[in-house]
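Re: your question from the hallway

Yes, I did run it. Sequences:
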Amino acid sequence: MALFAASAQQEAVAAPIQHRFDPYEDNGGTILSIAGADFSVIAGDTRQSQGYNIQTRYARKVWQLTDKVVLATNGFAADGANFVKKVKQRLEWYENAHQKQMSIKSIARMIQTMLYAKRFFPYYVYNILGGIEEDGTGAVYSFDPVGSYEREACRAAGAAQSLIQPFLDNQIYFRNQTFPADQPKPIPGNLPLGTVLGLVIDSFTSATERHIEVGDGLEMYVVMAKGRAVDDLTSKGALPEGVVVEELGPLGEGGGERTFLVRRTLKRD
Amino acid sequence: MNHHPAAWGQPLTAHQQFDMYSTNPMGMSAPRSAHSHGPVQNTQWPLVTGTSVIGIKYEGGVMLAADNLASYGSLARFRDIERLHALGTHTILGVAGDMSDFQYLKKELDGLLREEETLTLTDAHPPLSPNNLYTFLANLFYARRNKINPLWNACLVGGWDFKKDESFLGYVDLLGTTYTAPTLATGFGAHIAQPLLREAYEAKAGVDLEGRPGADGRLLTAEEAEAVIDDCMKVLYYRDARSINKYQVARVTKDGVSISESKSSETEWMYAEGLRGYGGQTQ
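Structure:
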């Protein structure tokens, strides 16, 4: 045994020193999505970094796919951009073939197969898909880089996942909270929009304080179910100071769902 | 050189002749061992390299700068290389990294542009915009990294976008990573020049809602932009050991591309008697 160990060690030393090309990079940043009863919030910061360098203060990580679905990507930016490009292409083909936009659960399954198709040279991308399910409920689907996915009430991914997810577990899933005997634990995924946006903003401002790869700007996409009143987003004073709302027009014919882009700054240091 | 008696009188290969004094990375040759047999190896390293390229948007255009040196390891091998290359009438390409890959890129892009030009002669065919060329480059770089056979470069693309009536500035590198910003720098310039460029740009243009520089919309004038570019090239020459005091500045405006003659920075190498703030001085 000792003989084998010695030869193995020698081989390691004898191996040539090579400039091995590493095809991957981590471009930092964080994404987050929270589902409500009849809406879904999909958010991401806009910083793109490489090591200690900020490459740009504005790079998009959240993408509107259909009138009721938004995708957030995080990880290796080149893979993310090219993955989103392919997803959009597949959605366009689907729409041309079927004269309708793909539903969120079908997009989720499609993303799984697209990710797993590159199982042995993966897209180094963590995806979070948010939007409105066909039954009108808010939905969040989260993926790992090789396509494993599930539907959840909320998910954080990226550089500050370890900072934000425990906060979400407490605030969205009510973990480690005690409730009086006469008041049952609420069911996750039913918080009002104002509360959810508050949690998203607090998550990102806090992550900006404690993580160097998070900051610069925050983009929050809000997808509203058909027929839902939007005054809790658009009425005066509904949102904190410094937050700006813009409605994004429907991409297709529009089925009644409405998508809004909510923006604010994050610290730049 | 091989001095073994068995090698006497034998003709030398081109590489052996070139490798007389084993100056790094001249001593590097494809590793021959049990590990290097087997599948095709595309794995490579840059050999003749250019250092930083820097770029900044200004009122009515965009400005790029790069020095004229192509290094061979630490050897300042080629001292009059142009690393700024015009692509058509309203786009400029600045390249850092491997110079042979840059030459390949030039050939590929010039071929594409010539093909497009023939189409514009017979048809109402729009010319390739800076954004089109940038997307082409991004796809090319990403496709090559997917083959694990990268083009070992970091590029800046500057141009004038007639659709938006504003300047364009984008970055793409060997991994296919892309991003745009009002000021950009590759390599060592990302450490040394980018802070100076950002400071100058944001001092005038401010910062917008998404943390994007440029809220006030007042950009630097061409003269102010060239002053900060000149300053950056000087600091890079002082601090980057793979740089040379000879560089070119390119501008793209509505009216087209212009690349300057090579120029030098005024430098000061006197004994820094009065300098404070470094080393062990206590006052």
